[in-house]
Amino acid sequence: MAPSRPPPSPPAPTPRGGGGPRRAPAPRRAVTVFPVLVVLAGAAGLALPGTFAAYGTDVPYLLGVVMFCMGLTMSLDDFKGVARRPWVVLLGLAAHYVIMPGLGWLIAHLLHLSPALAAGVILVGCAPSGTASNVVTYLARGDVALSVSVATVSTVLAPLLTPPLTLLLAGQYLPVDAGSMVTDILKTVLLPVVAGLVVRLLAGRLVDRVLGAMPWLSSLAIAAIVAVVVAGSAHALKSAALTVLLAVVIHNGCGLALGYGCGRLSRLGRPASRAMAFEVGMQNSGLAASLATAHFSPLAALPAAVFSVWHNISGALVAAWMARRTNAPAGAAGQ
């Protein structure tokens, strides 16, 4: 999940949340600092489980803050972008909701995960795109407009897609109340996003003045979620940590590779394929953690907490590598 999103401003997109080129470093700094902040939050939750575990019921509200910040960074242009290239956005959406849920189920099977961890990994896969994918696509010199469009549509459709996919793939491990999950996603994701978008439309100038703070507010909220989730499963963390990390690294890495490959096989070009990589491989782990805590157990939320850290680290590294390949002399390497 992510701190901020860049806008599709061709031909040279500038990060959303920063207001333009001069303030572009804000979301980049947030993406860079975010993993460190989340690691520190996780360490705090592990060291003081009694302090943070008591706030388990506040996780949905913290997620609501993140999604409201996302709504503030959105505009009607995001939806116009969908209309301009509907089939490409549909391809990205299909790739996201097929590849990541399928990978989650396969990894849970191959690693013989416990029911709680298996359900948690699958739930991460069934979540919509993480908003960090847009900033990372920008840093990778990918197709930001496509990234924003796919992330927007996957978030809007999450109430319709995430619960049934979770029921289908994770129902064999733990009971899944898909109807209740739909309601929770509507309340914690769609409603805050719409509210943020409405505020942006009604008070655009005022919102523009504070957009630079949105990445940091989102980062703090996600860090708080991770601290609470880790605290709730602190007793089982020592035995499950390596297994969860392995599952997350495989899940994220395969998602990035398959997303990029899907774009290349569809002949979308390198910028669009880079966007596909991040839209498939990076997840709204905050939503997954919230749903796992509410519907399964704190242990089931652990994969989402680890994913929240790892996908930002891997995304930043892959984006830096792609950007360097763009700057490389012609014929030096093709990706």
From TrEMBL:
InterPro entries associated with the record: BilAc:Na_symport/Acr3, Bilac:Na_transpt, Na+/solute_symporter_sf
Membrane topology: Multi-pass membrane protein
Keywords of the record: Membrane, Transmembrane, Transmembrane helix
Pfam families assigned to the protein according to its UniProt record, in alphabetical order: SBF
Record has Lyase as a keyword: no
Record keyword S-adenosyl-L-methionine present: no
Residue intervals passing through the bilayer: 31-53, 59-76, 88-111, 117-137, 144-165, 185-203, 215-234, 240-260
Region (Disordered): 1-25
Intracellular or extracellular location(s): Membrane
Principal subcellular localization: membrane
Biased composition range(s): Pro residues: 1-14
Official protein name in the record: Bile acid:sodium symporter family protein
Organism (species): Streptomyces carpinensis
